[in-house]
Amino acid sequence: MYAWPATEVPALPGQGSPLHIFDTAASGLRRTSPGPTARLYVCGITPYDATHLGHAATYNAFDLIQRVWRDAGHEVLYVQNVTDVDDPLLERAVATGQDWTELAERETALFREDMTALRMLPPAHYIGAVEAIPSIVPIVQDLLRQGAAYELDGDIYFSVESDPHFGEVSRLDAEQMLRFFGERGGDPDRPGKKHRLDPLLWLAARPGEPSWETELGNGRPGWHIECVAIALGHLGMAFDIQGGGSDLAFPHHEMGASHAQVATGSHPFARAYVHAGMVALDGEKMSKSRGNLVFVSRLRKDGVDPAAIRLALHAHHYRSDWEWTGADLERAEQRLAVWRAAVSRPDGPDAVELLAEVRAALADDLDTPRALAAVDAWAARQQAGGGSDTGAPGVVSRTVDALLGVAL
Predict the structure, then answer these.
(1) Could you count the other beta carbons within 10 Å of the beta carbon of residue 15?
(2) Which of 57, 68, 182, 363 is 20 to 30 A from 87 via CA?
(3) Of 137, 125, 132, 118, whose CA–CA distance to 59 is shortest?
């Protein structure tokens, strides 16, 4: 599977600071310490509907991480998956009378278009669950040999009790785990399981559903194991950050970490687990099941500048839960117009301090509201005629482009 085209990232003078990011597993900020190449895995879409602003906010956060790392002198190896076979996708295909493969391909293509328009840096490896099946099967076989997995009516489950580190990612108590497991695709009440939290590794073929003939039998992979196989294959253990929305901390990231740790006999799966907040509309989390979605593609079709969409996302800290309103977009469009007018002038206030302020804000847990405020302050000084540096507008334009992904 292919990703989307990369946009050029302007070079900036000097070098950025090390990134400090909130690690869910540590329940606090930690300094990232990548080697020459920073390794990042972000969980991708299940392509049964278009990219909504909740998706965009999540991928915006991890795009910023890439930009901060690059500015600090690191290469970035970024991997993202596509869950192109799963129950929600199959259910939507049946409900709408579509072929599930055509639905997945169409929505994945639209996602690529949205990411390109928003100038999100693409992953080096963009891998679908279906194409990952050959790498999934041997991991499941190994877990079976270790006694960390077991069969139940043809299905294969992972035993969470096989991992002494289970629970360290999300830091939830047993009651919370059971509640979220049931709400987020798990089957805690299935008879015959060794533990109510045990997740599926391999689902035996069901009538009318897609399946693949493998050494595990005819079936398809579970949700968590696909990301494990893809991450291990392209990043290895102890990569720098695993990321996604906050609803993935449990069960998805917790289960995936346990799969990998037991399979490899090493710990940790990822050095840090980073999660973006949820975006709401009309008082409820934006989600496909509720149908309360604002689509990026619809905004673009209505003539909204993608740069304004990114600025609207930047106005909220990536870890915060917030509610989208029309006022968000209005403020972003006004800000974009002011910034573009400011950098269009032939000179302006010195921008060296601005670059330092934006770098410091983003290195401090991606504090985009603080970064925006710094650019706002420079633009206000520009409007007031506060400088005559002919190089300043160009520095500001390149800073906003390279670090915030917004083309002025």
Answers:
(1) 9
(2) 57
(3) 118
CB 392 within 8 A of CB 353: no
Q: Report d(CA 408, CA 392) in Å as an integer.
A: 14
Query: In degrees to the nearest 10, what's the CA dihedral of 229, 233, 238, 244?
Result: -60
Evaluate the omega torsion of the peptide bond into residue 251 and state whether it is cis, within 30 degrees of 0.
Answer: yes
Residue 242: strand pairing partners: 41, 273
Q: Which residue is associated with the tokens 């980073």?
A: 274
Question: DSSP assignment, residue 120?
Answer: P
Query: In angstroms, rounded to a whole number, what is the distance separating the alpha carbons of residues 373 and 161?
Result: 48
Strands 200-204 and 217-221: antiparallel
- Which SS3 state, helix, strand or coil, does residue 122 take? coil
Taking only the tens place, the pLDDT of each residue in 68-125 is 999 999 999 999 999 999 999 999 999 999 999 999 999 999 999 999 999 999 999 9
Q: Which of 91, 28, 398 is nearest to 406 (CA)?
A: 398
Q: What is the pTM for the complete model shown?
A: 0.95
